[in-house]
Amino acid sequence: MSMEKKRNKKQNRTIMRTAILLLLIAAIGYTIYNSVTAGEVEVLKVGDQAPDFTLTDLNGESHKLSEYEGQGVFLNFWGTWCEPCVREMPAMASQYDVYREQGVQILAVNIAQSNFEVETFARQYGLNFPIVIDRDKSVMTAYNIRPLPTTMLVNPEGKIERIVTGEMTEQDIAGFMEEIKPE
Amino acid sequence: MDKLLCKCGHENPPGTVLCESCGRPLNEQEENKELADMRYEGTARRSQTYNKSVIDKIWNFFSSVKIGVSIIIILLIAAALGTILPQQQYVPANTEATIEAYYTDIYGTVGTVYHALGFHDMYNSFWFIGLVGMLAISLIIASLDRFVPLYRSLKNQRVLRHPSFMRKQRIYGHGPGQEDTLQKAEEKLSELKYKVSTDKNGLLAEKGRFSRWGPYVNHIGLIIFLFGVMLRMIPGFYVDETLWIREGETRAIPDAPGYVLESKGFTLETYTGEGEQEKFGEAIERVGTVAKNYQTDVVLYKIPEGALPGDTDEMEVVEEYPIRVNQPFKFDGYALYQMDFRQDEFSTMSFALENKETGDSSGDLTIDLVNPETNYELADGSVVELLGYYPDFSGFENGEPQTASPLPKNPGFLVKMTTPDTPDGETSFITIQNTVEPLGDNDYKLAFQSVETRDASGLTVRKDRTLPILGLGGLIFMIGVAQGMYFNHRRFWIQQQQDGSILLAGHTNKNWFGLKKDLDQVNEHASLPAYRDQQEDLEAQEKREGEQLT
């Protein structure tokens, strides 16, 4: 057998083996990546398109997320029984006063509580932003919300800019609104 | 490395031990053996012949059966360790911190170590999945490395083998023959369903070669199975979620986008032990109650294409279904199973507005604990106004009533009662145990009348698109097992030498008894020379030598 043929064969062998190994390692890597990220809360990731939804607020007005394109949306999931949610509400209200004119909208999504509870709460705390109630938890499911509070920061392009789980200080809230306000 | 040229003129791949074509031993070591190693037909395992680049080294690592078996043993040990304490999804905690605390609280130091080592989530850990992946690599490479040369060798085998090859077969015979010996042997072997090919003065009879592919088919099945398991990690292929739904509630089904479920009611039936059910009487006496049926009646809705989550007006009814144990509700690849229940959660509470002194009632009111109203007007013009509602009252904080959860487990009401007698209104805070009158003594009170309850159903949402793949993998696995276990690859080589004597050799991958039985039948018909089982001879000899030594 000529030297050239031999070299070709050796090359083919290396290419073949490398290809098979790479394919298998890619499959395993993908599996591990999936299992590790599936363990985390978010199936939604930063940079994903925020799933569109439509919910009705306490005044009977419906709010569709996609209608706020061009504005930043501060999407806060909460319930009256959740203490950190309750604590951050006044701070959200006061920052809303600052950032509303700069194109940042707050939508507070209550998780399946009664009109009465939510209305009483909103009146008590003097909340100035729209509060919508997710009665069948479909928006909560679509966003895969586990712990409360969770806040999804949606940028003017409708993409998720940041996912915040846990309580936010007023300073945090101001910083986050700064991140998603339109240019 | 160079190809090995056999004396018969056949070019063998480097590393070959027995010539693919004629069976001559190709190296000295093999020449000196009493019996030929027929395991892979004396072919070179491909990995052993090249060992140069890094890729070759990795390849050779995975090609080793020793490595494969080691991986299996490590996996077995790890899988066993994961069963010592419950895995994290089975402990009653759902955040990182509480899970860690749970292991320490319940199992002490052992639990702390167990959690620290990551054993609490063994089967999802990257290293466990990594090991399974390495096992898959090992299966594929080790199979490829053995299958290809074996296939080549069996495809290239020649009818006429070199006498040295035949002499080293376990079944071997040499002796005088007759003119028609070969012809008669061929007849009989064909009758026994052997594929007989002849060449000049010899024949090769072969049967059940496909049995040699059994292990490789088996491995293909395993790989398909592992591939199916891998798919479970990809969103959309596998769902295993829990959905708690109360009577009258409408809830989006987790991980089933576009589907919404309403619970019409939960039923728990028990056997009464009377009439036709008398036969259960004894059991009922012994254990108290015996459940007959757990059932959740549901309505499935679908949000139409293009509609959005939250758009409840556009939902369309798909189907009504009674979900019972072992009778899941199946739709669109999903299945809803009746798994759990909680009975008697409060749903409404009724009170009577009473004058404390006289005990006269101004009328009754019923508060819906799921969706309370603000004003309750009574017949005599009295009004009860709900000022605050705390479904799971947990105490006061800075004078504010608090609720621990959204479920009406311990409802608390802040009410203002206005009657014709007390037009300014009186304020009262009512819980199940007591009534607080924060603004001084009231003339009226809300007297608890009755409570209505509702049940909650715990459903499991399941979807498994990987089942057909797992089934296919399992089927192929079993076919491979049957192929390798219940069929044998049997071969006979018979040659008539120039002096008229007959050379005879036989080989099988298993079941030598069956091979000998076949040969005995041929012998009766064709008068072949007597054969010996050289393996048995060798063992007998070793035994004798052993006895002499002792």
Question: Could you give a quick summary of the protein structure above?
Answer:
The complex is a heterodimer of chains A (about 180) and B (about 550). By secondary structure, chain A is an alpha/beta fold.
Helix-strand blueprint:
The complex is a heterodimer of chains A (183) and B (550).
Chain A: H1 3-39, E1 54-56, E2 62-64, E3 72-78, H2 83-99, E4 104-111, H3 115-125, E5 131-134, H4 138-142, E6 150-154, E7 160-165, H5 170-180
Parallel strand pairs in A: 3-4, 4-5
Antiparallel strand pairs in A: 1-2, 3-6, 6-7
Helix pairs in contact in A: 2-5
Chain B: E1 4-5, E2 11-12, H1 28-31, H2 46-49, H3 54-63, H4 65-81, H5 96-116, H6 126-156, H7 163-167, E3 171-176, H8 181-191, E4 195-199, E5 202-207, H9 214-231, E6 238-246, E7 250-252, E8 259-270, H10 281-287, E9 291-302, E10 316-324, E11 329-331, E12 334-355, E13 361-368, E14 375-377, E15 383-390, E16 393-397, E17 400-403, E18 412-418, E19 426-430, E20 435-436, E21 444-464, H11 467-486, E22 490-496, E23 501-508, H12 512-526, E24 531-533, H13 534-549
Antiparallel strand pairs in B: 1-2, 3-23, 3-24, 4-5, 5-22, 6-21, 7-8, 8-9, 9-10, 11-12, 12-13, 12-21, 14-15, 15-18, 16-17, 18-19, 19-20, 22-23
Helix pairs in contact in B: 3-6, 4-6, 6-9, 8-12, 9-11
Structural account:
The complex is a heterodimer of chains A (183) and B (550). With 183 residues, chain A is an alpha/beta fold. Chain A folds into 2 domains: 1-39; 54-180, Glutaredoxin (3-Layer(aba) Sandwich). Helix content of chain A is 44%, strand content 20%. Chain A has 5 helices and 7 strands, in the order H-E-E-E-H-E-H-E-H-E-E-H. Chain A has helices at 3-39, 83-99, 115-125, 138-142, 170-180; strands at 54-56, 62-64, 72-78, 104-111, 131-134, 150-154, 160-165. Chain A has a 5-stranded mixed sheet with strand order 5-4-3-6-7. In chain A, strands 1-2 form a two-stranded antiparallel ribbon. The longest helix of chain A is centred in the N-terminal third of the chain and has 37 residues, at 3-39. The two termini of chain B are 47 Å apart. Chain B is of the alpha+beta class and 550 residues long.
